[in-house]
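Pilot study result, target chain (154 residues):
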Amino acid sequence: MPFAKETGMQRTCWKCEGSVSMHVPQCPYCSAFLQDPPVSSGGFSSCHISFPEGASKEEAEDLFAVSSEDWEAVLSDQNTAQESRKQEVPEWTWLQSWPFIALFVGIGLLAFAFLILLFATDNGLVLTWPKHRAYIYGLVGALVAYFGYRKVSP
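Predicted structure:
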């Protein structure tokens, strides 16, 4: 806790709220530049628009007036932006996802062929799949997986 004499010589950093000496131009904690805020007569005087004394009320209203052409331009820009967003959304049908389907079916058939080759006897697997057909399943699975992978990757 700083002494009473030191408290008068310190100020709070606006960024990190650290206690900093009055004589330091930059906060040693967060490197923020410490400038004295501008002194204004009122609390929020910088936020209000002040008009010259000769300005009438009609001139002040004209300052913020927007023409109908400007409104139409803004609305047409918004409409074209919404239409472009609608056009970008693709229609997902089963035809567009066929490369993924082909890839997974091919991988499944390939795995099935390896299962038959590794665990089947000459009579077949327990489910009675003949071993000599494993090459056909493997070839078809490899082809389907290859074509599916080629269509999926750019």
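One observation from the pilot: The chain has a mean pLDDT of 73. A full batch analysis is planned for the follow-on phase.
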